[in-house]
Amino acid sequence: MRKRQEHITVHYFARTYVEPHVEIVTVKDSKRSMSPCNSVESEPESEYQETEDALPVLEHESQLLDDYHLQKLAAHMPPKSQCYPWQLVYSTAIHGTSLRTLYRNMAGLDSPVLLVIKDMHKKIFGAFCSDPLRVSKYFYGTGETFLFTFSPDFQHYRWSGENSYFMSGNWESLQIGGGGGCFALWLDSDLYHGASFSCPTFHNAPLSTHEDFTVLDVEVWTVSI
Prior knowledge:
By secondary structure, this protein is mainly beta. The chain is 12% helix and 31% strand.
């Protein structure tokens, strides 16, 4: 592969009270100076930047996510989630298919999590959750939670503001989004059967090509702060 040539800009500074000097700025350095993780001389933006430097750093190899997935997801994650490495806390390939194990692996965590699902039709979808997944009596979470799908093209669904049914868990199932008797995302205790319907929380379309789907793999990532 041919190495891409970097563009270089040369700035010459000369003032009466400062010794003249030359500053060389490359395009890569310029991008990094605008990274959401760099609070020095960076301008606030209404939408998160979709740049190479903003890609989340994964501390483990993912079987489900590649750079394309990460680039699309990072553009919609809160900046604080892009500033720290992401750790794999649960994987069906490593830990087996058990919702109970998923909950146990997240016990004691206090950070956002990224739930990624691959179904038997090879579709990738899931949710960025403001809080760890856990057993709860009521729904919990914040408006930073959003749904995503790459089936077939990337789509994301943010909080509609209509209700606050972000996420809820029990020993039999995990639910994300709700209202009107439907969940945006539902998984059973064996992480084998799942379902996705349109719901008021996110005004989303079903995340998979089928409302009822069979799970092939699941990964859960969390920020390491």
